[in-house]
UniProtKB/TrEMBL annotation:
Ranges of residues in domain RCK N-terminal: 250-367
Record has Transport as a keyword: yes
Claim: Transmembrane helix is one of the keywords in the record: yes
Annotated transmembrane regions: 20-48, 68-89, 94-111, 117-134, 143-164, 176-195, 207-229
Subcellular location, record wording: Cell membrane
Protein's recorded name: Potassium channel protein kch
Length: 409
C-alpha cells in the first residue's frame, strides 16, 4: 500500500515538474503559433491566380491589376510576421509589440480582402488573444529584437516609397515608368541624398516626396536608436561608473529578485560580511541602482539556467528565490535542480495558497511570511500568550525545511 502511494506521489511530482517546465517555455509555443500565421498567408497567396514573384517584374504601373496590389502587401505582411516571431523565441518585448500590431493588421486585412478565408481570420483572432494573455512574459530587450524591428521598418518604407513613386510617376521630370527607376528614386529620397536627376513637378508628387523624406529620417533614426541604443547606453554607464563590482563567485549566496524580503535579506547578509550575488531583471535594476551599487549583480532572467550558471550556482552556498512572483520562485528552484547544483534552495511563497505548488518542486526551505504573520495575528486577537515557544511553532508552520534546532540557533 505504501509503495503504491509513494509511486503515485512520484508520478504526481513528475507531472507537476513537467507542467512547470512547459509553462517556463510557453514563449516558444507562442512564437510557433504566431509563425503559423505567416504560413497561412503564404498558403492563401499560393492559391490565388497571380504569382507573387511576378510582382517584382512589373515594368509599368498599368501592368499592376487588383490582384497584384492585394498580393504584394499581403505577402510582405507574412514576411514581417515571420521575422517578428523570431524575436518571440527570445522573449523580446519589442517583438511582442510588433507581432501584436501585425496580427491586428493581418486579421483586419484578411477579413476585408479575403473574407472567404474564415480559418485564417479565426486563427488570427486566437493569436491576438494568446499574445495578450502572455504579454507579461515578454519583458526582455535585446539588440537582435531591435534589429528585427529596424529591418521591418526599412523594408516597409522601401516598398511604400517604391510603389508610391511608381503611382505618382507622371508627376516627376523625367517620368517614372519602371519599377527599377521607382526603387532608385525611393532609395535616393529615403537617404536624403537627392542627386537632382529626378525632380517632382506636380503637387501630389512633391507632397509624396516630402512624406518619404520625413519617414526616411524618422525610420533611420528610430532604427539606429533601437539597435545601437542598448549598446551605447551600457558602454556609457561603464565609462562613467566603471565596471560593476565582481567577486570570486564561490561559497556565496545567490539572491533572485528584489522583493521586500530580498532587500532586507541583502542588507542583513551584507552587514554580516557574507558574499552575495544578486540576480535582477533589467527593469528592477534601473529602479534599485542605489541598493545594487556596491553589490555583485547579474542582470537577466533568474529562471534561466545560463544566468544562474553565470551567477555561480554550481559553487554557491544557497540560492534564494525571493521574487514577488511565486511561479518565478518555483522556476528558479527547478532550474537549480536541473543544473544539479549542490546549493541549498530557498523559495519564498508570497501567497499562501501557492505553498503546495512551490513545495512540489522540492526546495530545501519554503518560507511563507504571510502564513507566519497571519498565525501570530490570530494568536494575538484570540488572547493567546506570545512566547518564544509559540513563535518557534509559528515559524515551523510557515518555514518548511528548517528544524526546531536550527531555528533555536
Amino acid at each position: 500500500m505504501k509503495e503504491g502511494f509513494s509511486l503515485l506521489r512520484w508520478i504526481g511530482r513528475t507531472l507537476r515538474r513537467f507542467a512547470l517546465w512547459l509553462y517556463s517555455i510557453r514563449h516558444i509555443f507562442v512564437a510557433l503559433f504566431v509563425l503559423a500565421n505567416s504560413g497561412l498567408i503564404f498558403h492563401t497567396i499560393y492559391g490565388l491566380p497571380v504569382d507573387v514573384i511576378a510582382i517584382f517584374n512589373v515594368k509599368n504601373y498599368e501592368q499592376i491589376n487588383h490582384t497584384f496590389l492585394t498580393n504584394a502587401p499581403y505577402f510582405m505582411l507574412g514576411v514581417f510576421i515571420a521575422l517578428s516571431s523570431i524575436g518571440l523565441f527570445f522573449r523580446a518585448r519589442i517583438s511582442w509589440m510588433i507581432s501584436f500590431t501585425l496580427m491586428i493588421i493581418d486579421t483586419l486585412y484578411t477579413a476585408h480582402i479575403h473574407p472567404d478565408q474564415i480559418y485564417n481570420i479565426h486563427y488570427g483572432l486566437i493569436s491576438l488573444v494568446i499574445l495578450f494573455l502572455v504579454r507579461r512574459h515578454f519583458s526582455r530587450s535585446s539588440v537582435a529584437a531591435g534589429s528585427i524591428f529596424a529591418l521591418i521598418s526599412v523594408i516597409t518604407l522601401m516598398l511604400t516609397s517604391t510603389y508610391g513613386a511608381l503611382y505618382f510617376g507622371d508627376g516627376f521630370e523625367p517620368k517614372i515608368t519602371s519599377l527599377l527607376t521607382a526603387f532608385y528614386y525611393a532609395i535616393e529620397t529615403m537617404s536624403t541624398v537627392g542627386y537632382g536627376d529626378i525632380v517632382p513637378v506636380s503637387e501630389p508628387a512633391r507632397l509624396f516626396t516630402i512624406s518619404v523624406i520625413v519617414s526616411g529620417i524618422t525610420v533611420f533614426a528610430t532604427s539606429a536608436t533601437s539597435v545601437l541604443g542598448p549598446v551605447v547606453h551600457s558602454g556609457f554607464e561603464r565609462l562613467v561608473k566603471g565596471n560593476s563590482k565582481k567577486m570570486n563567485r564561490t561559497n556565496h549566496f545567490i539572491i533572485c529578485g528584489l522583493s521586500s524580503l530580498a532587500v532586507n535579506t541583502i542588507k542583513q547578509l551584507s552587514s554580516r560580511k557574507q558574499p552575495i550575488t544578486v540576480i535582477v531583471s533589467p527593469r528592477t535594476q534601473q529602479a534599485a541602482k542605489d541598493l545594487l551599487e556596491d553589490l555583485d549583480v547579474v542582470v537577466g532572467d533568474y529562471s534561466d539556467g545560463e544566468i544562474l550558471t553565470q551567477a555561480g550556482v554550481m559553487n554557491a552556498k544557497a540560492i534564494l528565490a525571493l521574487s514577488d512572483d511565486d511561479a518565478d520562485n518555483a522556476f528558479i528552484v527547478l532550474s537549480a535542480i536541473e543544473l544539479d547544483s549542490n546549493a541549498r534552495t530557498v523559495a519564498l511563497v508570497n501567497d499562501s495558497k501557492n505553498i503546495n505548488k512551490v513545495k512540489s518542486v522540492n526546495p530545501d526551505i519554503v518560507i511563507s511570511p504571510q502564513q507566519f504573520a497571519s498565525d501570530i495575528l490570530a494568536r494575538v486577537l484570540n488572547g493567546e500568550s506570545i512566547d518564544s515557544d509559540s513563535i518557534v511553532s509559528s515559524l515551523l508552520n510557515s518555514v518548511q525545511g528548517l528544524s526546531e534546532k536550527e531555528i533555536s540557533k
